[in-house]
């Protein structure tokens, strides 16, 4: 079984690359709950009131996805559970959670991570992190068009998004649950450019070979079989 998780800020291209990668590798994609998430619009309308509820909602759905993913042979998840605390910590730091909510959240997270430790596969095999600049992030958020995420909807989101990018750098540097790699999301348009898509897929395949999850002689013409 091979588990690949994507990470990166809002609009970085995680869901898009999850779809591309899982199709390419012949594995199952797992997406985080966004369009069917009833708390997300409430959070953007009143972050202080809903930050804790949203975090618990996401933690719960991420946990479900991980459990589902572990019943499949190989899979790609569009966001890691390890980013959960990053989001909540940032929201707490800007006063959107009470100390009691912070304590309860960390206790819950700790309990859930403890459950993960008991699962047949504790950690992913590879984390693929998509780096984007603020400008790219905003362009992609606009392109995707969820109304409540737009700067035109709420100008304070500029500070929120810039802050989020600042939290990601140390988070990625510290991440050590699995091998990891970065994709340059500013440089490669893996959505519209076939050439860029190939470059990015090659980078991921090379890393999977390096960490022993694909045979060294594997190439695109071979039947796609991720090594157990
Ligand atoms: N590398 C890329 N180049 C150009 N457009 C992209 C790229 N990655 C994603 N997009 C576009 O940006 C938007 C956000 O991508 P998405 O995959 O939903 O991001 P995320 O899941 O990280 O929030 C979508 O409209 C998608 O088509
Ligand atoms: N407060 C939090 N917001 C979160 C979290 N995970 C995702 N999100 C938000 C950010 C986006 O508006 C939306 C989807 O995220 P994408 O990166 O997939 O675009 O959900 C979280 O843990 N806390």
Automatic annotation (TrEMBL):
Active-site residues, Swiss-Prot/TrEMBL: 78 (proton acceptor)
GO MF: deoxynucleoside kinase activity
Top-level taxon in the UniProt lineage: Bacteria
Keywords: ATP-binding, Kinase, Nucleotide-binding, Transferase
Amino-acid positions noted as binding ATP in the UniProt annotation, renumbered to this chain: 8-16, 140-144
Pfam short name (any one): dNK
Entries under InterPro entries matching the protein: DCK/DGK, Deoxyribonucleoside_kinase, DNK_dom, P-loop_NTPase
SUPFAM superfamilies: P-loop containing nucleoside triphosphate hydrolases
Annotated substrate binding sites: 32, 44, 55, 79, 84, 149
Family under the similarity heading: Belongs to the DCK/DGK family.
PANTHER family: DEOXYADENOSINE KINASE, DEOXYNUCLEOSIDE KINASE
UniProt name for this protein: Deoxynucleoside kinase
Organism: Lactobacillus amylovorus subsp. animalium
